[in-house]
Amino acid sequence: MSLSMRATGMLVRLSRKTFTREHTLEASLRKRAGSAPIPRSMRRRMDVAEQVVAGHPVTTVTPTTGATGTQVIYLHGGSYIHGLDPAHWRIVAAIIDGTGATVTVPDYGLAPEHTVDEGYAFLEEVVARTTGRPLFIAGDSAGAALALGLAISKRATTLAGLILFSPWVDATMSNPAIQAVLPSDPMLVPEVLRAAGAAWAGSRDPRDLLISPINDTLAGLPPIAIYQGARDIFLPDAERFAEKARQAGTDVTLRVYADAFHDFVGAGWTPEAKDAFRRVADVITAG
Q1: Which residue in 159, 209, 239, 258 has a CA-CA distance of 20 to 30 Å to 123?
Q2: pTM value?
Q3: CA 108: distance to chain centroid?
């Protein structure tokens, strides 16, 4: 583990504990803020187009020089209850800088006010409006689950690939192996995740494959690249997902970073995040 990852992980544990020590959905919702705006630094050096689709903001960012025409839809995490965070914009900027891709960022409605059915209806419209190929869908955490859900629903459609950071592939958090990782995870709380997943599910069962994509057959999907920290309670399910996808004949690569925490790519100053983005650039530019 790098020193910067160790120091960042300690700061996360001390100051963030994402869903608070109260371990309730209500406590997390009380701390909810609106989505972070795109940083001025990105506006100064990239072309930014903003529109409203089905009542939700959608931001498309293109490099002012070196644009390749490759398209990426980036879906942010936050357990379906939190909006865009500054770390998400850092991830988007890193993808653009490394690939020259145009990245579209949909700001979907959050639970409990909005549910999975509304979310996918909105995202389907965003995909339909995205021009240019090749097209990748990327996301972190809950956003990675949404990326998988879109790929599953568009199985007959050609996507260049999926880029998944710390994917949340089972909203029920029922894998007993999670307990072994929990003491080392500085961020996530299973009880709140289960409640957030149930709120997002609305009238659906949280085991539904659009909420817990590990329950799909995982056959016939585009190539999948997963970047996962080992100090993240999503690791056991990410490993289980990758193995199931391979058995189904899907091309999947899982890269695990020892001692990296959940969504470590948001800490772009760490060697682990830099390595992940180099590998993402290789995947996207090869597509």
Answers
A1: 239
A2: 0.94
A3: 13
